[in-house]
Amino acid sequence: MIQLRNEIVSLRAIEPVDIDLLFDLENDVELWKYSNRSKPYSRDLLHNYIANAHKDIFEIRQIKFTISTQEDTAVGFIDLFDFEPLHHRAGVGLVVRKQDQSKGYGGAALELIGDYARKHLQLHQLYAHIAVENKISIQLFERQGYCFVGKKKDWNFYEGQYHDESIYQKLIE
Description:
Blueprint: E1 9-13, H1 19-26, H2 29-35, H3 43-51, H4 57-60, E2 63-69, E3 74-84, E4 89-96, H5 105-121, E5 125-131, H6 135-143, E6 147-158, E7 161-171
Parallel strand pairs: 4-5
Antiparallel strand pairs: 1-2, 2-3, 3-4, 5-7, 6-7
């Protein structure tokens, strides 16, 4: 059995019990600008997503885990997306609910997803696209060994203006 656990968090399969947290985070308008979204998700759509979350990463090219504390309280989600087994890489997405930020959960989850990606998917690298003004995320990823490798100018449009997006990469072998 795969253990995705360290002294701070565990990563587990997303379950129906996570629907309220998933609904709240996916429909947080403040986060939409970072996820290229412009409309809410219904509970029904999210229930269907969870029901199909068992599909293999090699089939659907993504996998989402629930980030849980050692007391088994769900605090956020981390996912691998744009999984490219031929090139041994994937993107990383991470969200921790606001009241649980700055407690070490995000960094611990990034550490675990890196170990999982390397050991179980044989990935060589992970990457993240982060809005340049999202300083908290930038610091989090940098603390976990991700390096700035480029910037996409005027990449996203929100709040009435264009915003640059930075690309961070980590080689995990």
